[in-house]
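Q: Structure tokens for this one, please.
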Amino acid sequence: MLQGFDFLGRLWQIDYTGSMSKQSPNESMLAKSSASSASSASSAASSASSAESSAASAASLTELPAVARNIHLMCKKCGVERYHVVVAHATATSAKVECEVCKAKSTFKLTKKSTSSSTGAKKRTLKRNEPNFAAIWSDLKTQIGVEQVRPYNMKMKFALANAIEHPKFGIGFVTSATNEKIEVVFQEGSRALVHNRP
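A: Here is the predicted structure, written as tokens:
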């Protein structure tokens, strides 16, 4: 594109297609000013987008940034988001950070992923799969009886269907027995106990 001024002081431009357009000096200045304003607005929008990206990355971090690294966080003292420098790692999931503007120190913590629902579901599943020891204990009590309850002692030998009394777990019933170990159902659950020790 070629540019020049005519005898009236108007700027003329010739593009490569051969057409010519004329602008007065005032129009030329206005065009330059508009272009400069558009460039500034674009730069500001880019900076805002960069800040939002930094803030978003801080919220989505899965591990703590290294000491002396910068992270974009909300500063409670300044009331706006500022860059903070990581001063030290307090724990595996938290770090001491310092605002680069007001020098206020705060603690940054990694966002915990919501696992409570899955953990609760696992616990509920385990509870559903656990046998009802209170009901089993009640049935064994009816079948075996408690007339011949023997006090538990690891030196004594017990056999299947024996009723024993443990000093901590109370009355229980032997459901399986080996030479060294017995399985006993108590009202609160099943326990493996040693017996027949010399």
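A few notes: The mean pLDDT is 74. The radius of gyration is 40 Å.
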